[in-house]
Amino acid sequence: MIQRHRKHRIMHGVVEHNGVLYVGGHAASDIDLDMKGQTRQTCEKLDAVLAECGSDRSHILSARIYLTDMSAKEAMNEAWLEWIGEDDLPSRATIGVADLGDPRRLIEIVIIAAKA
């Protein structure tokens, strides 16, 4: 059975199938923050989405992280590692992109997680 959560005009924020949560891209609300700040805020949003769907960060299976400034990758990694436990690290790809809709938006994160 497929369940869809958080309907938006063009998509659902989460699609659930067989106990797996496919979470659409999330980004910081305050795009005046630096990379570390935007990463922290994005991870907080992911915490809320996962909790709403019966999961948590320790159940993240995979993450795709899109950065507009790859030179700030280490700042992103610092915030990421503060957020997720070293025993719960998912598979991950960090992808450099030219644009995330606003030149101040530095990061967007897409995850796949198991239900808790």
Distance between the termini: 17 Å
Topology, number of strands: 6
Output the CATH class name. Alpha Beta
Strand content: 35-45%
Question: Helical amount among residues, as a percent range?
Answer: 25-40%
What is the CATH homologous superfamily assignment?
Answer: RutC-like
Helix count, DSSP H or I runs of 4 or more residues = 2
The CATH topology label is: 60s Ribosomal Protein L30, Chain: A
What is the C-alpha radius of gyration, as a whole number of Å? 14 Å
Main sheet summary: 6 strands, mixed
Order of secondary-structure elements: EEEHEHEE
| Overall structural domain count | 1
Given the helix and strand composition, which structural class is it? alpha+beta
Under the CATH scheme, the architecture is 2-Layer Sandwich
Strand order of the largest sheet: 1-2-3-6-4-5
| Unreliable stretches covering 5 or more consecutive residues | none
Average pLDDT value? Answer: 97
Which word captures the global form? globular
How would you describe the overall organization of this protein?
This protein is of the alpha+beta class and 116 residues long. The protein has a single domain, classed as 2-Layer Sandwich (60s Ribosomal Protein L30, Chain: A), CATH 3.30.1330.40. It is built from two helices and six strands, in the order E-E-E-H-E-H-E-E. Helix 1 runs parallel beside helix 2. The two termini are 17 Å apart.
List the helices and strands and how they pair.
Elements (H helix, E strand, L loop, with lengths): L1 E6 L4 E6 L2 E7 L8 H18 L7 E8 L5 H11 L7 E6 L10 E8 L2
Parallel strand pairs: 4-5
Antiparallel strand pairs: 1-2, 2-3, 3-6, 4-6
